[in-house]
Amino acid sequence: MAEEENQFEEFEQIDFLRDRHVRFFQRTLQVLPERYASLETTRLSILFFALSGLDVLDALEVVDSKVMIEWIYSQQVLPTQDKSNLNRGGFRGSAHIGIPYSTKGPGVLHPYDSGHVAMTYTGLCSLLILGDDLSRVNKEAVLAGLKVLQLEDGSFYAVPEGSENDIRFIYCAASICYMLDDWSGMDIQKAIDYIRGSLSYDNAFGQGAGRESHGGWTYCAIASLCLMGRLDEALSPRELNRIRRWCIMRQQSGFHGRPNKPVDTCYSFWVGATLELLDVFQFTHFEKNRSFILSTQDRLVGGFAKWPDSHPDPLHAYLGLCGLSLIGEPDLKKVHPALNITQRAFQHLQQLQQTWRDNAGSCVGQQ
Amino acid sequence: MSTVEEPSSEPLGVKEQKELDAEVGDHFGDNYGADPTRYILYRDRKEWADLEPVPQDDGPNPVVKIAYSDKFADVYDYFRALLKKDEKSERAFALTADAIDLNAANYTVWHYRRVLLQALSKDLREEMKYITNIIEEQPKNYQVWHHRRMVVEWLNDPSAELQFIADVLSQDAKNYHAWQHRQWVIQEYKLWDNELDFVENLLDEDVRNNSAWNQRHFVISHTTGFSDPAIVQREIQYCLNQIRKAPHNESAWNYLKGMLQDRGLSSQPGLLEKILELKETHCSPYLLAFLFDCYEDALESSFQKENLEQEHKETLKKALEICELLAQEKDTIRKEYWQFLGRSLKNKYGGDGPSNEETKPADTQEAS
Question: Where is this region: Disordered (chain B) (predicted)?
Answer without folding.
Answer: 1-31, 345-368
